[in-house]
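Notes from hallway chat w/ T.B., transcribed later so I don't forget. T.B. wanted the structure written out for a chain they're using in a teaching module, and asked if we could keep both sequence and structure tokens in one place. Agreed to drop them here.
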Amino acid sequence: MSALPSAIPSAVRRPIRELPDELISQIAAGEVVERPASVVRELLDNALDAGARQITVRLAAGGVRLISVEDDGQGLPRDELPLALRRHATSKIASLGELETVGTMGFRGEALAAINAIAELSLLSRAAGADGAFALDGRTGELRPVARATGTTVEVRELFFATPARRKFLKTDATELAHCVEAVRRHALARPEVGFAVWHEGKLVEQWRAAEARDPRLADALGEDFVAQSVAVEHAAGPVRVTGRAGIPDAARSRGDQQFFYVNGRFVRDKVLAHAVRSAYEDVLHGQRQPVYALYLDIDPARVDVNVHPTKIEVRFRDGREVHQAVRHAIENALAAPRAGDAVSVPAAPFFKPRSAPAVPAWTQPAMHFAAERGLGDAAAMWPGERREPVVAPLPSFGSAAAQEAPPAASFEQAPSAKSAAHGDDAWPLGRALAQLQGVYILAENSQGLVIVDMHAAHERIVYERLKTQLDGAAIASQPLLIPATFAATPQEVATAEACAAVLPALGLEITPFSPRTLAVRAVPGTLADGDPVELARGVLAELAQHDASTVVQRAQNELLSTMACHGAVRANRRLTIDEMNALLRQMEATERSDQCNHGRPTWRQLSVRELDGLFMRGR
């Protein structure tokens, strides 16, 4: 066994000195250029800033051997070509005031210099009104006349040839090509008036023609299905305007690979925006599914800082809460309208309304107590009793005899029958009820064909939305603990508890300092009294530290109401009359977000006549 050295040799002292310009550029290039797609992104930014209306990207070996970006923009004069390759040389800004209100895609003046430090770069350009074009060799500085129309072409060859260690980290050509195409797609989604084309090894890979409106570009770049399975977003709140399209919950994916958010035309990835979008979907999205969207936020450039990271993909907002609320409300409003159609003009009869005060089952007592404390009107209508007097009402002639029997477990007021409706099927997007299947599904007929409704999921959403409306921001009832639960808290948890002392009671929590490093939980929400108070307190404090307090309060209230609505909704194997089924359908048409239950599962599905014909091979 070898002996360890008695002493570690001291490092040889080296004098402090300035780094060579070339090494400085190569270090800076490591932040700006990560892979070929980074080069494509930077060159596209410059082309768009130059006013290009057609941009062509040519690649070889996934962009490692060649990246050529050609545009028809304003071009560069001959005397500015050498200056364009110098570090921190730009025409975009000239003062700190302009930096704080950046309105262009590029502004740092680092991209071309960084690329030139790690690759072979040549710049060809002809300024508008100039007699000819000139080409600049980035290595030698040689300037020579060439033939070219107005615009600029930047050619980058042998990427990372000067830093071979970085080249080893690149993936296969196919992977790098996919990243380059994605970089072009992101720019294409933000600028529908500009045409884009991507060539690889002499073959056209992708092309997006210039469009006058945004929707045609979204259909070209993301597919017709994206437009068909999304809703338009249009919302303005003070200085913030949010537009675009948000995918319906049914279109959610297992990965977040179709999430595009733009701030003043710049593609960004921001935690505030991502959380706002997720919050808007939390009531309608199932499990860990990821929503799809292409959203555009327009805001005064002075209210957002884009000078956060060299890649310019991160931003900071002066008022994050203002932006968060605007984005969340924009998507919530867009998703709220039932996709079955607009609310019917004739008010629907209540789906669940007892004739007399019933005996309430034991499992509904906590929910009933909560409703009574909060002053929720007609609370008994939310949770059915076990025994109710049946209401025998005249029923339409259609439907089986079994379907026309009064339900044994509950009674309902008579809904407008499909036979006597004056508006017809077209006024009822979910159609008229036909029968009940296996005590779980309602079958209905509309002008498109057959509608299948999960009655428990549908009624769960109706009850949930009614509870949310009636609660209207009231505090959650709390239950004091006989013995406070204490725990060792981090400095951030202590600070959050002190800062949010006025907010915690709205969540049904009372958390107070017990010592400089200990917190005591003295009260918890009444419905969660049997849970772990320490884990609950830690989770809430972590959420409050990261997100706006009002958002946390609303989410906690909604989770509680969702649980209550799930227990209060009509159960499976309940036999409903035709009128009761129609009443449920009418309330679905009038209830926001009724296309999904509280857990994000769909509440109804449409089968067209053509699909039914296909099942039986009719017309073949």
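Follow-up for T.B.: The CA atoms of residues 341 and 429 lie 6 Å apart. Might be a good example for the class.
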